Each structure stands twice: as structure tokens, then as C-alpha cells.
Amino acid sequence: MTPELTALALAGLLHIVQFVAASTLANIDVGPGYTTSPRDRLPSRDMRKITARMLRAYDNHVQMLGLFVGGVALITLSDQSTTVTQTAAWTYLAARALYIPAYAFGWQPWRSYIWLVALACCATLYLAALL
Prior knowledge:
Helix content: over 70%
Subcellular location: Membrane
Number of helices: 5
Protein name: MAPEG family protein
Largest sheet: none
Number of domains: 1
Radius of gyration: 17 Å
CATH topology: Four Helix Bundle (Hemerythrin (Met), subunit A)
GO cellular component, one term: membrane
Structural class: mainly alpha
CATH superfamily: Membrane associated eicosanoid/glutathione metabolism-like domain
CATH architecture: Up-down Bundle
Number of strands: 0
InterPro entries: MAPEG-like_dom_sf, Membr-assoc_MAPEG
Low-confidence stretches: none
Shape: elongated
Order of helices and strands: HHHHH
Mean pLDDT: 95
Keywords: Membrane, Signal, Transmembrane, Transmembrane helix
């Protein structure tokens, strides 16, 4: 397995861990009666700020992971793995792991910078595949 694919596998595991953490906090805050319902109404209890942030951080990862998968797929399928693409993949993973506490604890403006690093890593993978 290429280093980029290893980083992708770990990003997938991070995604699962992030989902479990956010879901657990939501269950604690609003109760399983709401979280297992079709959610046709607003919860009867408010979520804590950290829970809402963890859910938004997870949603952000849902959006970003597809970009990373595409970049890794292009690099892998075209057999263009280099030190640059490997560094981009591992830096993406580190940035996404750091993004979770950055969002949860409101690290301003660092959360946005961390997000930008992950996006730049995805762009690097696409550019490397094209060049």
C-alpha cells in the first residue's frame, strides 16, 4: 500500500472516531429518544456548545474527505507517488486530526488556518497528478 493510501485509511478511521465522539456527545446532551428519532422536530433540550462544534467539525470532515479521496485516487491510479504527494497526504491527516480540537475548543483563527492547510494538501495532490 502506498503512503498516500495508508494516510487515506487512517483518515477513514479518524472519520469514524470523530463520528462516534460527536454522536456520543449528542446522545448525552439531547438523549437517545431524539437522536434515534426521524428528527422531525427540534430537540427538547439544547446541546452544549462543544457538542454542536463537534458535530460541525464532523460535517466539515464529510465535505473535505471526498476531496482527499479523489486526490489520493488520482495519485495512486496514475502511479505518481512522490515525496511531495506523500508529505501532502500525511500533512492532510495531521491537519484533520488537529482540526477536531481546534473546532471543539474554538481556536480562533487557528481553526481556519488548519482547515486551509488540509485544503492546500488536497490541491497539492490534484496538481501533482496533473503535472
